[in-house]
Write a structure and sequence with these properties.
The structure is a homodimer of 114-residue chains. In chain A, a hairpin with a 2-residue loop joins β2 and β3. With 114 residues, the first copy, chain A, is of the alpha+beta class. Chain A has one domain: Orthogonal Bundle (Arc Repressor Mutant, subunit A), CATH 1.10.10. In chain A, strands 1-3-2 form a three-stranded antiparallel beta sheet. In chain A, α3 crosses α4. At the A-B interface, α1, α2, α3 and α5 of A face α1, α2, α3 and α6 of B. Chain B binds a DNA duplex (30 and 30 nucleotides) through α4.
Chain lengths: 114, 114
Amino acid sequence: MTLTAPVASEATSCTPLDLSAALTRPQAEQLATLLKAIADPTRLQLVSFIQASNNAEACVCNLTEPLGLSQPTISHHLKVLTEAGVIIREKRGTWAWYSVNQERWQQLAPLLAS
Amino acid sequence: MTLTAPVASEATSCTPLDLSAALTRPQAEQLATLLKAIADPTRLQLVSFIQASNNAEACVCNLTEPLGLSQPTISHHLKVLTEAGVIIREKRGTWAWYSVNQERWQQLAPLLAS
DNA sequence: TCACTATATTGATGTTTATCTATATAGTTA
DNA sequence: TAACTATATAGATAAACATCAATATAGTGA
């Protein structure tokens, strides 16, 4: 004889939550994708460095040296940020100029204040 | 006319950026730690579920079923969120009640709207 | 005390990710 | 054309992480 499974209506057990106002899985996944893109110290510095540069744009070679990482690693991080829509890539000649998507970045401003 | 070089003043190498206004490494690491805590769809839903519950607090057993994950996994995620200061843990009897750190959560509001 | 319940911790496993070196691609200029 | 430069991609590796089953801890009540 096996033990009885927990009864759903048991008085002392947990009441189901009303989740009609909560984040759905797709919503949570989409938001997590954006947050993952910036949840890395190197990528946060990359965006900050681009923002702090002269015309609010920078190329890969500007960013490699101050971060002390290899060029492919910087390119990789910039790709992640670009695909998340946090920064924008514009090719001019052999250079790739990156600028900050201000609308997206402004959404993150409240978090940066802490 | 010839194609635009990067900037007339610099022919070959990149001009160093002025990073005096940019995020320092320790600042970036601290912020990344907070962002990592919420950059996960399950943890975003956990916070949202707690927020949506009756007194804006929930215990582990409330959260296990709607997420379809094991109890140890939920406890693990709640620990990550607690250590990041996103939620607050209060033990009452055998139950552990979790509530949202409203100040932190409000900083996310602009992102939730997008 | 003992049994039951709620939650936390441990240890293992498969997946993701940050990083490198090596190489490829593409634009510029001789 | 070839050489040079800036950037991207491929492949490998080690670390971090999400998850589970099993177990430990701690509170409650008979």
